[in-house]
Amino acid sequence: MAKHKTKIPQIIIRRLPVYYKILKQLKSSSKDYVSSQDLAKLTGFSSSLIRKDLSYFGTFGRKSYGYDICCLFNQIGQIMGFDKQKNLIIIGAGHLGRALAYNRGYQERGYNLKAVFDKNSKLIGEKINNLKVRDINDLEKYLGNTPILVAALTIDNNAAQKITDRLIAAGIKAIWNFTNVSLKTPAEVLVEDQIINQGLCHLSCKLKQNDCLEFH
Amino acid sequence: MAKHKTKIPQIIIRRLPVYYKILKQLKSSSKDYVSSQDLAKLTGFSSSLIRKDLSYFGTFGRKSYGYDICCLFNQIGQIMGFDKQKNLIIIGAGHLGRALAYNRGYQERGYNLKAVFDKNSKLIGEKINNLKVRDINDLEKYLGNTPILVAALTIDNNAAQKITDRLIAAGIKAIWNFTNVSLKTPAEVLVEDQIINQGLCHLSCKLKQNDCLEFH
DNA sequence: TTTACTTTGTTAAAAAAATAACATACTTTA
DNA sequence: TAAAGTATGTTATTTTTTTAACAAAGTAAA
User: Fold this and answer.
1) Quick one: pLDDT at residue B4?
2) Which residues participate in NAD(+) binding (chains A, B) (predicted)?
């Protein structure tokens, strides 16, 4: 299926989830096929770019028809590795950690949320979406018994690096970082920084450019 | 302060929040100045790119010293319009809406969280971070009395477009969209899609490329 | 004061990304 | 079966973005 052995350009990786999202919506529509032009309207990318992106991975379209929605959806899922199972834990059972625990969308992406940890004894033992909050002191013991690939970090900034070091020592391969700390990790451990306020930054920036911020 | 009248390239807008985040961390360090090389290490961008990005907005550096951390932090905040006040409401008091209600980081970006709405009568009246959850039926009345620029949308997908239409009719200028729906809005209303699982998609994609997904 | 060093801001060059254009292949209709 | 129409996949072109290079300006040390 993979047409290229070379690394997928970051810029394409960033668009894949957008295609995936749109295709998921289209799946529940009455149509079976979608053209690059339709996708252009829905994504805001040009049809040319969309065809080019998709052709990077193979030949999915059907001339004069477009792309089979279901087929393309599955293909893009596979390209992103959603067909492979990945265990996930959440560190930090605060408001954000809790919201992530209730997040739907893990399963279809191949993620299995296995545990939630916190240091606060008041929270330990509480059930969040059917998962018992575990004691952060038991982290190493747990990771020794259960192979976990990814950890979501929703803890205080000042604890972020320390917990990261422990996670790495225990063999975690990737961190979904919701803290405001720039984590130091070895090159082989992936970090995905999720700047929660990024969207607000963009909006503020664009509102300013549109002169929406003058009097209010 | 603004050097250019032309629109800031999207690609630079995307990097501004990263600079902002790093500078905020640096502010609480002992150093007063930071060089583009230091910033390169912290951001992962090249020092050349950083100098170019910053020079797009003006001349902030000091030769052979680098950039005054506090000064640059404030400048970038201003460039993004954080010095202008923006009222914000949250639609949807579920787990995610709740997490957003507790989000710190509004104030320093010039956002004032003014209200939270929900349709669920069990939630209406409840206090979340000192804000009483309001009845979504009162949305128009509220917006008629209070000027609100931005609405965060943390509701079910199937209600998303309907609520969006109401928000737009009531004069909202920007939507921070956490739903999985591609919202249809007039060109002058900004939409910032926050695909909550985007980070997981990227991680899955990269883990796959690093051959971390084979056996597990 | 002079020399060596540092780091910016900017220009030039290279690389990457996006767009436009179009030949090809398939579909539909007559 | 032929003609008209559609939409892909790919190549060529343009545009954007990034990197590299360096002069200019300031600092620090001798």
Assistant:
1) 59
2) 92-97
Q: What CATH number labels B86-198?
A: 3.40.50.720
CA distance B177 to B154: 7
- CATH code: domain B10-79 is 1.10.10.10
d(CA A97, CA A106): 14
| Residue B86 with chain A: CB contacts under 8 Å | 204, 207, 213, 216
Cα A48 off chain centre by? 26
Kindly calculate the radius of gyration of chain A based on its CA atoms and give it in whole angstroms: 20
Within 7 Å: CB of B64 and strand C? yes
A201–B20 C-beta distance less than 8 A? yes
Q: How far is the CA of B95 from the C1' of D21 (A)?
A: 52
What are the pLDDT digits (tens) for B29-61?
Answer: 999 999 999 999 999 999 999 999 999 999 999
Pick from A108, A202, A210 the residue to mutate for testing the B interface (most B CBs within 10 Å): A202
Q: What is the mean pLDDT of chain A?
A: 95
Angle, vertex CA B128, rays to CA B125 and CA B131, nearest 5: 70
Query: Residue B215: pLDDT band by 50, 70, 90 thresholds?
Result: low
Q: What is the CA radius of gyration of chain B?
A: 20
Residues with CB under 7 A from strand D: A 35-37, 47-48, 51-52, 54-55, 59-67; B 9-11, 45-46, 48-49, 51-52, 62-65
Domain boundaries, chain B: 10-79, 86-198
Within 10 angstroms of residue A194's Cβ, the number of other Cβ atoms is: 20
